[in-house]
Each structure stands twice: as C-alpha cells, then as structure tokens.
Amino acid sequence: MPWPDVSGLGIAVIFGKDGFLQDPRVRAEVHVLREVLARLGIEVLGFGTDTRKRFPGRAWALVVRSDDVYLLGRALEATHGHVFFRGTIAQAAASSPFAALGLDPEGFPFDLDAFAG
C-alpha cells in the first residue's frame, strides 16, 4: 500500500527507535515532548508504536500538524536533553535548547518513577 502524499498539508512525523516500551526515560521524553509541542501551539494528530514480534514497542512516532521541521527538531532536542541529562553535569547545557524555543525547562517537570514498569 503506498504512503499518502501529505506534502503541502503541514503534517510531519517525529519519531524515535530508542525503546519506548523498554525504557521509562523514553516514555517520559514522549510525555514531555507532547507538553512542549502543546506549549508551542503544535497539534498532535496521532501517536503509535511499532508492533514487531521481536522487541515490540521499540519505535514510536508522533504525527503533528506543522511544516516547521527546524522547530520540531529543536523541540525534540530540548526534550531529549531535559529527560536524559537531568541530574547530570550536562543538565545546564541541555537547558539551552529550551531557551532557544523561548521556554523554561522548569516548566516541564516529570517524575521518572511514574513511567517505570
């Protein structure tokens, strides 16, 4: 089945293949990313994970209404650093992408334990 042509519709896909069901940090990252996108006024149209028999849920994707690929990349970069480098020496550097978006990383708290299991 061919993919539909969505060029010109202002739709993009943000994805990762870093273990959504296997790693609570990835689930937290997607949660925070959705909050960041909402704060930026970007509508999430859908979310899904892969259904492979081996390692299901490893890949994830968000379908969003935006044609600003640069902004989406910056949002993903900011979110990734915020979740994966929290509590490390790199945390301060990881906060700079939020500033570039005009956002404060403190406005996106999360409890990693809530995503465990």
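the 2nd protein, sequnce then structure:
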Amino acid sequence: MKTASLCNGLSVLPLLDHQSPKHKRNNWLFAGPLRAGQRAATAMSLIQSAKLNGHDPYAYLKDVLARLPTHKNSQIEELLPHRWQPAQT
C-alpha cells in the first residue's frame, strides 16, 4: 500500500492509493478549517493542471517550489502549468 500525505501547516491529509474514488472525494470534506480546505483545493488544482499540460506533477511542484524564493514577482506567470518549462541544469 502506497501512502502519501499533504501537509498545509495545520493538519495532515492522508492520501491512500487503495481507496475508491468516492472515499478519496470524501476525505476532502474533512480538510479542517475553511482556509485549509482552500489551500488543499489550490494544491489539487495545480496538480491536475500540471497533469492536463503533460507534466509530471511531482517534478513540476518540486521545480516550482525550489524556484519561488528567487523568482521575480513580475515573471510569476512563467511558473503556471501551461507556461512552465523545467529548469535548465
């Protein structure tokens, strides 16, 4: 059984692979306070957008989160899934 978790600083949400899609949807009913649910929805939106744009969500998020501290605010659109290009190493 593969297990991962999503931490928003207030609570940890378990994501289990063996659960049916219905149970996965119901897990989000218990995301904690409203702001925690909003953060979880934002994270899931980024992950799904990355998938729809043909990116590996893990590679996308890892790269974007590494770039954010030094990326210019005026160029933040470059980090959106539909414009993102992996960093050149």
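The CA atoms of residues 13 and 60 lie 21 Å apart. The beta strands are 3-7, 12-16.
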